[in-house]
Structures
1.
Amino acid sequence: MENQNLNLLDRALGLDGPSEPWPLSGRVVLIEDCVETSGSFVLHQLVKRSLSPTSSNVIIFVAFANPFSHYDRILRKLGCNLVTQRDNKRFIFFDMLMLRCPDVDEGKSSEGGLVLLYEKILKTICGLPGDKKDYVTIMIDDISLVEVAANGGSDYVLDFLHYCHALTSEFDCSLITLNHEDIYSSMERPTLILQMEYLADILIKAEPLSTGLATDVHGQLTVLNKGTSHRLGRSGNKIHNFHYKLYVVLWRKKLVISIDKGYSSEKRSFRRTYHVNGRLGFWNLNTLCVTHLLNG
Amino acid sequence: MADTICRTLRDGGLEGEHAPALTIKDSKASPFGFDVFNYVLTQLSNYILAGKSQSRGLVVVAYSRSPSFYVDLLKRRGIDIASSHDWIHILDCYTDPLGWKNWLIDKDISQEASSLSSFCQDVRNLDKLYSLIIEQGKGLIGQGKDRFSIAIDSVSEMVRHASISSVAGILSNLRSHDQVSSIFWLLHSDLHEIKFTSVLEYLSSMVASVEPFNQAAFGQRVDLENLSMLEQNFRKGKFHVRFKRRNGRVRVMCEEILVELAGIKFTPVLSEDEIINQRLLPKVQFNLQLSEEERNERAKVVLPFEHQGNGKPIQIYDGRRSLGENKEEALVSTGKLQPDEDSGKGQIIYFRDSDDEMPDSDEDPDDDLDI
């Protein structure tokens, strides 16, 4: 079942092989997206893959963008129960929606807050049992909001990212971050995102097609795998490009029973794309619809 | 050509001269600077271990990778520094550059220092960093007159924590230190203002730039047409090196880079050399170059100096004599002239301004002045 549902994205990231050692161990992944094509679905897909039953990964999810319920709802539709994973200590959620540290004065709060966040992550990793310490994935959603939390201090954000990068070599954990490329497009020298691109071993870009909007295809994913030399046996720099279309699957029994035209009652689902907040359906990738990823 | 760079670093500087300095420069479009850095590091390490270089030790200032990365890198290249490392030291500015780990209340999280590496926990203080580098270097080479080399894996990281002038200051001081044999660093040019890149290029005796193989493909949205070009850009690149020689001449060379899993390979680009040499000439509206014919004519010109270097007796042509005698004299003295004076070769005919002037000699006419 797992093999059938592997998709091009998994193959591009090397996740189609054995799950141990975790192919992304010690690597830094940067997901870049823009308003037209949100890259959150890639993050959700990686959460699902990391928490698969065959792997022993632990995810430390640092959420600046959405609350736990948001991710829980989405991953549930992907067949992954985050509440159970949280209880099993495989999914550790840091709710950073309340961004500020209230008591410290303005100048120090930005750096101080990020130091405390780093300390929290470090202590969490050190507090894990021995067998789980080697399979940690740190996910940050998303970096632009970390910058907001740091009152625009991109230097502090870069320092924080540097320390997270140091964790990947100290504990062999993986670091997956999301940032929005179009925020920085008006800057002459977008240092933050450039530095992040230099740090990253794998760059995943979600962007619209060069030909513009299309009904059948929502966008294109470009996966650039820099193939760091410390991973022997891995192929060198490789660039993958494919088109994608996102589907939403709603598992609502009552609704399915009442609507039965054109849908498979065995699968008890219906497919529909819809607009949410003006953005084309980006909610989640169902394992079934993954097979609809078109080869670019 | 990359080997030329490595040999220059190997040979080091002369007494009283600044150490040769290499800037390795890359950008997002062709991010192979770190691969080039690793290549140079490996080569220099091999030279040091073989005793072929001026320097006897190497200090690696690691900002963007951990010391264990360099241990693994050198091990893969056949150099096992874990067991014998009396010639190399890594200054760890990566693990805890700002001392955040010191701020943590729980001191259980300990850091292991070793004889191979030591921590720098305040990269903002460049004076202290300078002292640390010199101290570690001297520790490697002992008390004698030996020298050591320095490798800084990211000046881009260094300048994030300090001002441009202080970074330029420390690099300049390191370069001019008596015991530093050579120094090289990596820079990501698109992260900085042009001013900073220019400052570093001024400080360097060699500037190696990594440029994209297909310049046009960069910056555009990916589509089927430019995908193959983009893929090429992430395997190949162009490598331009500018050398400043001791005599002041500048030499530019170019090679192609191929990045593979095992490392980076440099292949020569033969046809580029002439194009590059032409690029050194300023673009003006008149022709500064010589054609083949003009070159031959120039070679045939007899210079009006007394030392022709052809073994014939030296006669000084003093311009006061008549033309007929002069030609005879010239014919005898130079010996290079063709018997047929209408051979079409060039001649320089020199007439003195007045008869009162003394003939040319080696003496400086101003020697008798009493200044």
2.
Amino acid sequence: MGVGIKTRSGSGRVATARLSAQPGGPRSQWAAAFLAALPIVPRGVAARWRRAAAAPGEGEGRSAGVRRRRRAGGAMLRTSLRQVSAALKDGRVTPTELCQRCLALIKTTKFLNAYITVAEETALKQAEESEKRYKRGQPLGILDGIPIAVKDNFNTAGIETTCASNMLKGYISPYNATVVQKLLDQGAVLLGKTNLDEFAMGSGSTDGVFGPVRNPWSYSKQYKDKSVPKSHSEDEESNWVITGGSSGGSAAAVSSFTCFAALGSDTGGSTRNPAAHCGVVGLKPTYGLISRHGLIPLVNSMDVPGILTRCVDDAAVLLGSLAGHDPKDSTTIQDDFKPFEIPNLTDFSKLSIGIPKEYHAPGLSSEILALWSKAADLFKNAGAKVVEVSLPHTRYSIVCYHVLCTAEVASNMARFDGLEYGHRSDMKDSTESMYAATRREGFNDVVRGRILSGNYFLLKQNYEKYFVKAQKVRRLIANDFVKVFRSGVDILLTPTTLSDAALYTEFIQEDNRTRSAQDDILTQAANMAGLPAINVPTALSERGLPVGLQFIGRSFQEKQLLTVAKWFEKQVQFPVIQLEEVKRHDSGVFQHKKSASFS
Amino acid sequence: MRAVLLGPWLRAGTGPRPHPATPHRAPHRALRAAPTAPNTACDSQQRLPAAGRDLPALKQKVSVEVLDHLEQLALVDFRDSEGVERLQKAIQFADQLHEVNTDGVEPMDSVLEDRCLYLREDDVTEGNCTKELLENAREKVEEYFVAPPGNIPLPKLEERETFLQGSK
């Protein structure tokens, strides 16, 4: 399989930039800047992107006006949602142009396998409609014309929804999930459906039937500079890292600039985990804030739609568009939700940050520990109160999740029998045997394993021992959080993952359940308790891969959570990923930076 | 390599010995080592529930009758010995729940238990979408989904084509 990142000369051979390939070479400048305890002058993430957009490029001898327009349009892919929305409003770029660029970039980054379905025609149509609205001066809102991707377990009318499973291959949803409908109603352009673990079960985005998703950072200059391939031919093929899961496709799509925001789902960390590995912001809202109608359920009592964006501000924009009561989802709360602009955090004296000691889990990499420590220092130096807290039942959270998840999965997967939709086996002997054959053909090992485990825990003789017991432990876990928040802590600061992204070849050496148990440890408890949580990309690891930190807030206090997260994001100045493909698309902007791969 | 202890913030400063972060060695290898490395100083606080390597031995293996029963209930098959192993490991993993004392604790169904569930008015607001719904069904006749004959139980273990057949 040719994963060809072709050089400009089109020789077809893989050539990568090797500025400091030897071990002990200079570390990434941003990681060094952050890890060195120097006061960082906050410049703001937005400023960095604005600078990138305005940088003079070499151009190609065309007229200055066209060059300026091309540059402006080209660099648009790397701006934030708010900025591109402003550009659309000003007419500096049109929705169709934006859509076409995104679609072209999706094609060039196909090797990432982030998308299962690219809805090219409908996207262009939506972009045209949006353009008409802008021409009339009547855009529907800030999301009008913005390209968005959606995880493939959300129903999208007229577009195949597969959940990366054979069971739903060819299934064309007859309706839109509420969150998808809300986005479309505001004029967003739906580019396509992103890849995931089958039925959102997994923590690597490696177990779907359409293959694993590759982390865009595997192909970044930052990672390549740090990696020493074993041999030239093994270069790209064995060196790539996973995205994390299960919303890996959505995270990869946002990280590689093919869309401005993506929807994921979060049941045990499925939005925050890939967000940490792909260096994007992953927000898990409070359970009950955003409608789950149309989200193919995994665990009804813990699922929430997740939001993946490149900066915290964009996440707030998406949240504002999606949150609110839905009559079609009775688990959404009825309180009015007021969309908000994130205020600047100025008064730290009233802010109390909690550091849960149990999150210092065995296996936590020393780099992440150091970053966590530095982050705590950051808040302390700003004047906030930083205290150690205890969530004593943290270590049972993953076991509890295991039981509750498999039990609810056993119930939720029972609807897939081939009769009304989805794959249907040719077996005709009896209804039951048809169901059994359909399910044997449609589900992969992971799904079947969870269904069988779930049924075991729900057997009459096991019900009290396992299922009810797990529900009781869940209450203990939720109470832990209540106690901590009641003691005056506003926000909890924890790592999101135990380490940076693993090599695919290493990741698949353990089975799905073991990996999920390992990777979900730090993110799972927030789902147990239904609390909002967000991953903010913090710095690059020694391998040049993103590492993020997690903030957990009180129920329905997303405004406070995002305020703190936005301030933190501004302090850490997480570097922009340097991808050859995107450079090529955004031609004219970065050409002044010499890169060895452009020969 | 910088100091790694989250010193001022965690009183249990004797965290697990950090493993050296070598490039290309997936951290998961070290993770596998971690549960078995004894760390007596803060064992009771920091020990992670074992993720599958050193779990307490299963009290008794799941009997073939139960496995057969599960296959019939779930209508999915174990496929091979790996499937059965997976179940055994899952049960072992879940057994750790019994370490927790839950006397007097009520089970929690939903985090929104202190709110009233929303019930809407009993008015028909949408429907009439028979055609759309039938589109996705493979076998249908007029407005009916067609199923093979019902009320026929799955064949017994001896007659079924299942991996479990040989193990009785």
